[in-house]
Design a protein that fits this description.
The protein is an alpha+beta fold. The protein has a domain of 30 residues. The chain is built from one helix and two strands; from the N terminus they run αββ. It has a two-stranded antiparallel ribbon. The longest helix is centred in the first third of the chain and has 20 residues. The chain is flat. The model has no long low-confidence stretch (mean pLDDT 78).
Length: 70
């Protein structure tokens, strides 16, 4: 019984670590803008994160391929 619990705990830990890391790629774009006025300086920072998983749908403008003739 103890071996079964240990095996299940190990499998659960492995599944949890894979779920946390994920299978996708992330990309971050950081844009800083500084505006100087007579009243002072304002700095605006925008950060956009793009996450892409393994699912690659076709672009919106494509048509499905024609089926082969039989």
């Amino acid at each position: 019984m103890k071996k079964l619990i240990t095996a299940l705990a190990g499998t659960g830990l492995l599944a949890l670590s894979m779920a946390i890391t994920g299978c996708g790629e992330t990309s971050t774009v950081k844009d800083q803008t500084e505006v100087k006025t007579p009243g002072g300086t304002t700095r605006v920072t925008e950060q956009k994160t793009i996450k892409q998983t393994g699912d690659n749908p076709p672009p919106a403008g494509t048509t499905p391929p024609t089926p082969p003739k039989q």
